[in-house]
Amino acid sequence: MNRIFRSTTTRPRHIQPLSSFLTPHAHRSLATTTSSPPLPLSPSQRGALWYARLGIVFVAHGLFWSFLGTYIVDQTVPFAKGFKSSSVTDSDDTTVFERAADNNRIVKSLRGNPDYEEVRPWGSLTDEQRKTNLTTGLLAGNGKIQYNRVWMNKNDGSTVLVLGLGRKLTGYPETIHGGLIATITDEALGRTALNVLPTRNVVTAKLTLTYKRPAIAQRPSELRPGPREFMVLRTRVVEYTDRKAIVQGRMEDGEGRTLVESDAVFVVPKVWKLAELPREV
């Protein structure tokens, strides 16, 4: 009887060729060595790049014309350098303020009034003495107290002070320092008190100021100063004795508007002799 034996021989498995194993590796190696094309820019990126390029062009264009214009002005315009300092406060020609004051309507009226006498404050002082005086020395000059004239009424001793105050005396920009106004007012009121007292030496016992409007610094052009830019300080004696005088004042701008109102009391100390100083000082 024939036996049927199950074959114990193992059927060989299907063997893939070597090329099938190598092919994927070859593809992967090729993929890593070949660069892919760049991705296209989005619309927003293209817009930003366009604006950046446009900005660079405009900046370069502006710088070019700026340097070119400066060069042309400095090299080809003969009077350009004269315009670089168009402010009188930087000039040494004080006569421009004298001419401007001559056109001031208040100055014209005072000079045409026989009751008023024109004087210069501390005019009798020598140059050396003037250097130690505050308003006629340290604070006088271009850009500071540029014009300072007094007209005294021969009948009642009242005075009219015409001032040209420059930009070097400002506290707040373009505005004359309030402390300087107090100094000028105190001196003007004291001078008026001396017009009626039998002495040439007084001291300030009381000074009150009420500021109504800012006093704008004088801003005249070097070619044509404005006569309306001068300030006017009017003072008058209210009451006085041999050793005491009460004086009031009002500072106005070129339009006649009140800037500062003031009143003061001046006294002669008892230890001082009357008429201690010569009258002309």
Automatic annotation (TrEMBL):
CDD domains: PaaI_thioesterase. Keywords: Membrane, Transmembrane, Transmembrane helix. Residues 175-215 form the Thioesterase domain. It comes from Tuber melanosporum (strain Mel28). The chain crosses the membrane at residues 50-73. It comes from the Eukaryota. This is (Perigord truffle) hypothetical protein. The keyword Magnesium does not apply.
